[in-house]
Amino acid sequence: MTPRSSWLRSRLALLGWGTLYLALFVWVYAHHIVPAFSFQGFAYHPSLERTLVSAFLVLSPLLWMPSVIARPSTFAVWFLYFVVYVPAIVVSFHILELGFPFPWFFLWLWFGLLLLASLVLLPVVRIPKIRLPQTWLTWGLLGLWTAGYALFFKAFGLRVLPSLRDIYRVRLAARAVVSSQGRLFGYLLRWFSNVINPFLVILGLRRRRWTWLGAGVLGQALIFTFDATKSTLMSVPYLLGLYGLLRWKRWRVPATTLFQGVAALFGSTLFLDGVLGSRLLTTYVLRRIFYVPGLLTAFYLEYFSTHPKWYWAHTLIGRLFGLLPPAGTSAPGPGFLIGEAYFQNPAGNANVNFWADAFANLGNPGVILVTLGLFLLLWLYDSLSWGHDRAVAFLLLAMPVFALTNTSLLTALLTHGWIPALLLLWLWPTEPEVSPP
After folding, report:
1. How do residues 133-142 score in pLDDT, each as one tens digit?
2. 203: Cβ–Cβ under 8 A, 6 or more apart, which residues?
3. Dihedral, CA atoms, 184, 186, 187, 190, nearest 10 degrees?
4. Which of 48, 170, 398, 411 could form a disulfide with 228 if both were Cys (CB 3.0 to 4.6 A apart)?
């Protein structure tokens, strides 16, 4: 088989699976999400015009996106395709009933995905590492884990796992505790849930150190009792599933396998809810992970197309440069404006994915700016992961990239663990026998 025919065959396979996935995504949206959650703003307004344009935007990237996931950045791009890009287009087109001329936002989103997908063409560089004895690092990590939880218990006390109906009450109470403890305490809590505990889970799985695995799982369960963040609750099955998939495919996963896996997740979720006679899994898996990012993107696009942009005045950068929020607003950030305007909850922060957040702050140029920032960040991650065990390289990225589905790139960089993850890759000893990703 010639390289050209092989390329054509892989692209046709991707387009075929992509078309099936798009049909499944729209069908579940129309028959399960909208009927049950229309009160949140979900709506279904099919038209030939919107169907053709949204199908083009969803399927055309499959002509250039990497067909094999062989380095961590490629996993990140595909993850964002499924959880941010496709929902942002499909759900927004229905909620906003878009027609010609379509907003430029979607073209910039399309171009941003193209830019991120081209990262695979950029070779990694080998960055010099600080060589420290692994024994020191191991004991330092376990010492940090122990000290961190002593601090958490002092602030929160010993708690039990909250029920699903108590999640928002626990979350509001946790916000007050974190606010009283200072900014660094809040950073530490997220670093543990997104980096430290997942890292212990990864090392436990890869090296069969069951005490490390247990510490990571226990640590995530404890954090869920503190602040009831659903991403923390779902992190362990997410990491275990990703580890199983990568190991099964020997750390080179065909993109078609991702489509098959996500379709299986949709099917099994609906099947189990049907057997149990509930909407529990549909609510917390399908709706929350795959459809809410699109709902919030639509709201941000609609609102900030006609209201003043924020220019990151509410962030650390805004405070450093003395930037001011839009005149006449007392909200602490754009998410609170969306919470008040669309959910009638001024105290609720409707945080959104990094692309929609960039639009709220700088409009369409912001979408390209944060895409360039993420491009460089992923290239740095690929370079630092050179020579690392692939389980460490891929799975350590899992939670930080998940954070981009509901927060800005700036917030994810510091608060949600990107910097600690990069630091761990830089400090942790590599394994020379492992080829570069």
Report:
1. 878 888 888 8
2. 209, 212, 213, 392
3. 160
4. 170
